[in-house]
Design brief:
The protein is α+β, with helices and mostly antiparallel strands. The protein folds into three domains: about 280 residues, DD-peptidase/beta-lactamase superfamily (Beta-lactamase, 3-Layer(aba) Sandwich); about 90 residues, Lipocalin (Beta Barrel); about 90 residues, Lipocalin, CATH 2.40.128. The chain contains twelve helices and 34 strands. A nine-stranded antiparallel beta sheet has the order 29-28-27-26-34-33-32-31-30. The protein has an eight-stranded antiparallel beta sheet with strand order 1-2-4-3-17-16-15-14, sandwiched between helices. Strand 18 and strand 19 form a beta hairpin. The longest helix has 14 residues. The radius of gyration is 25 Å and the shape is globular. About 40% of the residues are buried.
């Protein structure tokens, strides 16, 4: 049983004052009575040895955050949905390699087999429900229900990629997994997890929040930044579960983390199943180390199982180190909180770096002066400088400024540096690398990040103002899968994307068949033409949604 001694907002079991002060220093930015904040916890063996709240759970009533404060977990929820599936397999009720349509016959037959494992590993290719909802006109502040998402998924007619060939993070996978738990157990995910996981572990203040109107005592509310000194409510009205919507506290989460090495629910075989890295059809392990709703990796030589989450203003991260019989927790209720960084820094206070005698520890960033390029490098880069776009709408510029190479996107410039192999990498994130090379008639860039690879093609934006040319795009476009329409119109001699739920969005022409805009949910439209070269529709290829067809109706 997790034991603790409470002193106001602090829980401790004999941690040295010096260690407590170091944790306080890590969280000091959040320790204000006029701002949202965070709660952190440290688990050793079966005990919560440190738990403390910083800042406010409710700004309007001045209620502080404590270790018992309830937070919305966002994607940290996924591991609990996945473990529910593992427990059902243990009971002989299903198999991870079963076709999902065995339990969800309403899911469309897309001409290929999708397994439960594909869902939990994010290798199904199923489109992202949040992006589909946004395209349909649903905003993050709107009420979103399980039934609403199921109806959208019922209408899907294509996948982002062939099943098992890629990793593609999609919350739809875990909504479907929740529906499978219900179909197999005869209980909602909330009721199943209550009886199978939370009550046995003593997590008595934890539940899947499947009704946004339900009152929850002691919850932290969600905030966004208006400016450096003022905050706004960041509304969350979710009534769906599976990928998100777990409500819990640091006190309760500690009991879940200790279950990874001191088993009260399930056994080591079940934990091994939950944390076994996924594989693609070709046998290759997922580079991100993604398992069943949880990430697997290494922190300074210690095995780590972890996951983070973010919805509205909530930011969460939990990590467990089974070989050290330890876990670290960080929950926040403000959008600029960095729970991953907080967990890493607190972990480093407790666990000695074991990589020193093996591989060298990661080097701290050097002086950016080392990124200054030689004249010959700049000359070699000239053919590659300009604007790029990927198939899913990621756009950036490659530019040289003051003798240094930058990757420039909407959020600002990111410095690149050249390595010994001739590749370029993000200066502060060296595992994100860029290879520049001709791609047939195109100039292209391959970008590789952990678990992902992107192909970007250079384009020269078309500044087309000829009304006759622009008229070819004008019309109403309808998506039968979502039952929604968008228009393309001319405004001030430029194309704009119109919809009755959103402001008009100016369209930029990467070329005559690729239109870009600043709506994250559909920022890349691929124009479709008939044999006469007339515009007959477009495909949306944006944020976790590909090949979504809109037909031109007029």
């Amino acid at each position: 049983m997790v034991g603790s001694v409470f002193f106001g907002r602090v829980c401790g079991q004999g941690l040295p004052d010096s260690l407590v002060r170091k944790i306080d220093s890590i969280c000091s930015k959040r320790d204000e009575a006029s701002s949202p904040g965070c709660a952190v916890g440290v688990v050793r063996n079966d005990s919560l040895v440190f738990a403390k709240g910083y800042g406010m759970a409710d700004l309007e009533f001045g209620i502080p955050i404590e270790g018992s404060t309830i937070f919305h977990m966002a994607s940290v929820s996924k591991q609990f949905t996945a473990f529910s599936i593992v427990l059902l397999e243990r009971a002989g009720k299903l198999r991870l390699d079963d076709d999902i349509r065995k339990y969800l016959p309403w899911f469309p037959d897309l001409g290929t087999r999708i397994t439960i494992r594909n869902l939990l590993n994010h290798t199904s290719g199923i489109r992202e429900q949040g992006t589909l909802l946004a395209i349909q006109g649903t905003r993050i502040h709107d009420v979103i229900t399980q039934h609403q998402i199921v109806k959208i998924l019922q209408q899907q007619r294509a996948l982002n990629f062939p099943v098992g060939t890629e990793f593609g993070y999609s919350n739809s996978n875990f909504t479907l997994a929740a529906e499978i738990v219900t179909a197999v157990s005869g209980q909602s995910l909330r009721r199943f997890t209550d009886s199978a996981i939370f009550v046995p572990l003593g997590m008595l203040h934890t539940h899947f929040h499947d009704d946004y109107t339900e009152i929850v005592k002691n919850r932290a509310y969600s905030y966004s930044l208006k400016d450096s000194a003022h905050y706004a409510n960041s509304i969350l009205s979710f009534s769906y579960v599976g990928p998100t919507s777990l409500f819990t506290s640091v006190d309760d989460m500690a009991k879940w983390l200790s279950n990874f090495y001191l088993h009260k629910v399930g056994d080591q075989a079940d934990i091994d199943t939950l944390t076994r890295k996924g594989r693609l059809n070709n046998g290759k392990e997922l580079e991100l180390g993604y398992a069943l709703g949880i990430g697997t990796g290494d922190h300074n030589g210690w095995r780590e199982f972890s996951h983070g989450g973010g919805d509205a203003g909530y930011r969460t991260f939990v990590a467990v180190y089974p070989d050290a019989r330890m876990g670290v927790i960080a929950f926040g209720n403000i959008e600029d909180f960095d729970p991953n960084g907080v967990v890493a820094r607190i972990t480093d206070l407790f666990l000695k770096d074991r990589t020193a005698n093996g591989k060298p520890a990661e080097q701290a960033p050097k002086d950016t002066a080392v990124a200054v390029l030689a004249a010959s490098d700049i000359a070699g880069l000239n053919p590659y400088l300009g604007s790029y776009v990927s198939g899913d709408g990621v756009a950036f510029d490659l530019a040289v400024r003051n003798g240094k190479l930058y990757y420039v996107e909407q959020d600002g410039p990111q410095l690149l540096t050249k390595d010994s192999t001739g590749r370029y990498a993000m200066f502060y994130e060296r595992d994100i690398q860029f290879t520049l090379e001709p791609l047939g008639k195109d100039t292209g860039i391959y970008a590789k990040a952990p678990g992902e690879e992107f192909r970007f093609v250079k384009y020269t934006a078309v500044n087309e103002k000829n009304e006759r040319v622009l008229q070819a795009y004008i019309g109403d476009y309808y998506c039968p899968e979502l039952g929604c329409s968008y228009g393309i119109a001319i405004k001030d001699h430029h194309l704009v994307l119109t919809n009755n739920k959103y402001d008009d969005a100016p369209l930029r022409m990467a070329d005559y068949d690729h239109l870009l805009d600043d709506n994250w949910w559909m920022n890349h439209l691929t124009i479709k033409r008939n044999a006469a070269h007339e515009v007959v529709g477009f495909e949306v290829n944006s944020d976790r949604v590909a090949h979504l067809v809109f037909k031109k109706m007029s």
